[in-house]
Amino acid sequence: MKKITLKEIAQLAGVSVMTVSNVIRENDSKVSLETKEKIQSLVKKYNYVPNQNASNLRTGKSSLIGVLFYSNRKKIRQRISRIRLFLQSLQV
After folding, report:
1. pLDDT, tens only, 22-44
2. How far is CA 31 from CA 10, 41, 46, 47, in A?
3. What is the rounded distance in angstroms from the CA atom of residue 37 to the CA atom of residue 61?
4. Above pLDDT 70, what percent of the chain?
5. Which pLDDT value is given to residue 40?
6. Which of 41, 38, 51, 37 is nearest to 4 (CA)?
7. Which pTM value belongs to this model?
8. In whole angstroms, what is the distance from residue 54 CA to residue 61 CA?
9. For the residues of the chain, what is the DSSP string, one character each?
């Protein structure tokens, strides 16, 4: 089954793409309850999931971390341990 787009949900709901986007992101204080429910039911019906790649391109940001390893297994385990400790220290 083809993935549904934000634009297609907007057409089905009879609203703008921005309205659908606002409802999905819960920035919907200006959207009527009836419209919210209609959009939310369509999102659920079609199992809509926002495209993370599109979002990353739009914002210019990503929360991915790239890690390069050498082939020595012992060193890899040590580095993984250090990376885990480092990432844990970043969490508040």
Report:
1. 999 898 888 999 999 999 999 99
2. 13, 15, 21, 21
3. 30
4. 95
5. 94
6. 51
7. 0.60
8. 11
9. -PPPPHHHHHHHHTS-HHHHHHHHTT--TTS-HHHHHHHHHHHHHTT----HHHHHHHHT----------S-HHHHHHHHHHHHHHHHHH--
Cβ atoms within 10 Å, residue 39: 24
Structure tokens at 42: 């369509």
Taking only the tens place, the pLDDT of each residue in 57-71 is 888 888 788 877 666
In Å, what is the CA distance from 22 to each residue of 16, 30, 42, 58, 90? 10, 9, 14, 15, 30
Chain centroid to CA 61: how far? 12
5: CB partners within 8 A, 6+ apart: none
